[in-house]
Amino acid sequence: MRPANILTAITDIMAGIAIAGFLTNGLQDVQGVLQVICLAIAAIGLYGGGVVFNDVFDAALDRVERPERPIPSGVVSRTQATVLGIYLLLLGILAAFSVGEWPGGLATGVAVSALVYNKWGKHNALLGPLNMGLCRGLNLLMGMSILPEALAVHGWLAFVPILYIAAITMISRDEVHGGKKRTLYRAAIGYGAVYAIILAEAVKQHRLAEVVPYLLVFIWLIMRPLLRAIREPVGPNIGKAVKGGIIGLIAMNAAWVAAFAIFPYPLIVLAFLPLSFLLSRAFAVT
Fold first, then answer.
1. Measured between alpha carbons, how far is 161 from 135 in angstroms, rounded to an integer?
2. Residue bearing the bigger pLDDT, 214 or 285
3. Transmembrane region positions (predicted)?
4. Cβ contacts of 143 within 8 Å, gap of 6 or more
5. pTM summary value
6. Domains of the chain
């Protein structure tokens, strides 16, 4: 289920909720708090189910390339993993529908996109990264849909995680056998576009000073391992760049929250970072 990664999915929801403007006055009653909790549960189920099915569909390949994973190592059977994956995806969809039709519909879209990626998308060099990015984009929209009217105004921001995750997915293909610097440079360009959009939105919201500290943390987390991989594009270095990119999502989402919500909400989101680092030592990230 990749516990360290699941925390990043929860912060996607928090970013979407902040962008929608819900944190301004939505947490003043129990109903608002319960809606946020249900969307967080939805993110846990959808992400967990998605990566479980990743292992289900890749079981044969993992016996060769990653025999330490749960299915090829014999910790669980493929059937047990399939049951767990179905349970988690249904949990995510039902939790989202408990908030409303828009969240439920978007959660269904996340589940379908994850399954399409795991079965077919990952095998396509062009569409695969975009397919994986779509899962994150829909996750952000699911958070925004806590106030459905926000989707028409800010829904285009889902393009940012789509671009960002597409860049990470593109380089992750080389983490086993190593890769080419050209792919890493393309990822760096994609990262730069993400920085630019976040900065532009911070200026638009008149919150540049609030956003910059979180953006700097984000840049440090993802660029340090990426530059190391560019210097020496071997499998372990690329794996670290992918890991940094995934966990760095927490800092990126904290920057989004800083652009749309008051303190201490962005700091609360950033507080997921050390916990994610701890979990990444015990559980695989990629």
1. 9
2. 214
3. 7-27, 33-54, 75-96, 153-171, 183-200, 212-230, 242-261
4. 12, 13, 14, 15, 16, 17, 19, 20, 39
5. 0.93
6. 3-282 (1.10.357.140)
